[in-house]
């Protein structure tokens, strides 16, 4: 219903052109002083769908909270712009082009984070794709397969690579997946999207149970109506969607992408050290 989308089958190129010289070091500025004591200080973070929407907001926020960030998505122009913005603000950021529908490029992007920064501590699997709105019998098989490849299989591939990297380097860490409130109830307009996000919730719980004994926490955030490209595309195809969703939300408005990123940052931080296997609704009370 509400996640960023930055993946398709059109671009399956891994980024192997960046080098360590592109990674800024934090200088002694008021901003860097704040980052040194931030929520994610000292951590290396990997973020998918980081070119825009919630993913880009998360990249900016995680860097401001002290993390070194590796941004991953399909659009290199968008990734470069966000990474340059972070570096200009005194943060540490680089990028790797990847398509969640291409497992090799996803694994390559995770490897790039370790290559650049020497470790991986946390990961935010935010990248996703949408579907044409409408009843399930109106959805083409090709569209269903694409949503599956990106939103579920892509997340599975990313989690597998991230957990292996955390285990091999930091030893302990955390992963957050972006789900949706549309996975927690009937979703007649986005049935494949909702079903595959619900499957992602199950994958999240299973991973939490599996890797908890190793000190690796796995949680999910379930955004409500959020001002991302996916929402705007849905509203364009079905005018009045945003107004209708806001009418169902006690806070009466849609979330800004940063508001979702704040929840993810907390779940990835040590302040959430006893939270795992959770699906945290960030929905303005929509499902209260």
Quick overview:
This protein is of the alpha/beta class.
Report on this model:
The chain is of the alpha/beta class and 288 residues long. The chain has a single domain (20-282), classed as NAD(P)-binding Rossmann-like Domain (Rossmann fold, 3-Layer(aba) Sandwich), CATH 3.40.50.720. It has helices spanning 30-36, 53-64, 76-88, 103-117, 141-168, 191-211, 229-237, 241-247, 257-268, and strands at residues 44-48, 68-73, 92-97, 122-125, 173-178, 216-223, 279-282. α6 links the parallel β5 and β6. The longest helix is centred in the middle third of the chain and has 28 residues, at 141-168.
Feature tags:
288 residues, 14% strand, disordered N terminus, alpha/beta, seven-stranded parallel beta sheet, single chain
Number of separate structural domains: 1
Count of individual beta strands:
7
How much strand content do the residues show?
A: 5-15%
Query: What fraction, in percent, of the residue positions are helical?
Result: 40-55%
By CATH's scheme, which homologous superfamily applies?
A: NAD(P)-binding Rossmann-like Domain
SS summary, helix count: 9
CATH A-level architecture: 3-Layer(aba) Sandwich
Task: Note the overall shape.
Answer: globular
Whole-number radius of gyration? Answer: 18 Å
Structural class: alpha/beta
N-to-C span: 17 Å
Instruction: Point out poorly predicted stretches.
Output: 1-29
CATH topology: Rossmann fold
Largest sheet: 7 strands, parallel
Mean pLDDT: 90
* SSE run: HEHEHEHEHEHEHHHE
CATH class category name: Alpha Beta
Q: Numbering strands along the chain, what is their spatial order in the largest sheet?
A: 3-2-1-4-5-6-7
């Amino acid at each position: 219903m509400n996640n960023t989308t930055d993946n398709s089958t059109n671009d399956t190129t891994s980024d192997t052109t960046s080098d360590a010289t592109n990674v800024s070091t934090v200088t002694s500025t008021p901003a860097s002083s704040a980052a040194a004591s931030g929520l994610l200080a000292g951590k290396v973070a990997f973020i998918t769908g980081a070119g825009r929407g919630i993913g880009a907001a998360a990249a900016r926020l995680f860097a401001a909270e002290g993390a070194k960030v590796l941004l991953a998505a399909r659009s290199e122009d968008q990734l470069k712009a966000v990474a340059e913005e972070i570096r200009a603000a005194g943060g540490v950021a680089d990028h790797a082009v990847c398509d969640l529908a291409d497992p090799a490029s996803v694994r390559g992007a995770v490897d790039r984070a370790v290559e650049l920064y020497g470790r991986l501590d946390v990961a935010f699997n935010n990248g996703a794709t949408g579907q044409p709105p409408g009843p399930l019998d109106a959805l083409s098989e090709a569209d269903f397969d694409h949503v599956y490849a990106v939103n579920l299989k892509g997340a599975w591939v990313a989690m597998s690579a991230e957990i292996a990297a955390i285990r091999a380097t930091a030893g302990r860490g955390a992963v957050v997946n972006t789900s949706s409130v549309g996975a927690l109830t009937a979703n007649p307009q986005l049935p494949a999207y909702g079903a595959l996000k619900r499957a992602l919730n199950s994958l999240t719980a299973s991973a939490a149970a599996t890797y908890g004994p190793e000190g690796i926490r796995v949680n999910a955030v379930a955004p409500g109506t959020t001002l991302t490209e996916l929402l705007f595309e849905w509203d364009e195809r079905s005018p009045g969607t945003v107004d209708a969703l806001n009418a169902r939300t006690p806070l009466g408005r849609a979330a800004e992408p940063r508001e979702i990123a704040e929840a993810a940052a907390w779940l990835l931080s040590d302040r959430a050290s006893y939270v795992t296997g959770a699906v945290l609704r960030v929905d303005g009370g929509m499902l209260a």
